[in-house]
Structure formats: structure tokens, C-alpha cells
Write a structure and sequence with these properties.
single chain; elongated
């Protein structure tokens, strides 16, 4: 299988989005209650939710 070279922006786009979501989740968890707690759970759950997608994509 031939690998196609991808630009750096494309390679690091998903990890950068996950990092930003994690940072937003941590900040929301530290600064508020109520709706911010729900937002923090969703944002911090994003990296965990992407693992099955990444594993399935890597195997194909």
C-alpha cells in the first residue's frame, strides 16, 4: 500500500481540535457549575469517544 504525503495542517488538525476541546473542558470544569459542568463532561469525553474511530480507521 502506497502512502500519500499529507501536509502538516492536515496531519495535526484532529489532534489540535482534541487538545482545544480538552482545554475548554478543563477550563469549564474549573470555572463554573450547572451548564458548564455539562459542557466540561462533553468536551473531556471527546478524546475518549474518538479512540474507537481512530482504531477502526487505522486497521482499515
Amino acid at each position: 500500500m502506497k502512502r500519500v504525503r499529507q501536509p502538516l495542517r492536515q496531519v495535526f488538525a484532529a489532534p489540535a481540535c482534541i487538545a482545544v476541546a480538552s482545554l475548554v473542558g478543563l477550563l469549564c470544569a474549573l470555572t463554573g457549575d450547572g451548564l458548564r459542568d455539562a459542557l466540561s463532561w462533553a468536551a473531556l469525553g471527546l478524546p475518549v469517544a474518538t479512540l474507537p474511530w481512530a482504531w477502526a480507521r487505522r486497521r482499515s
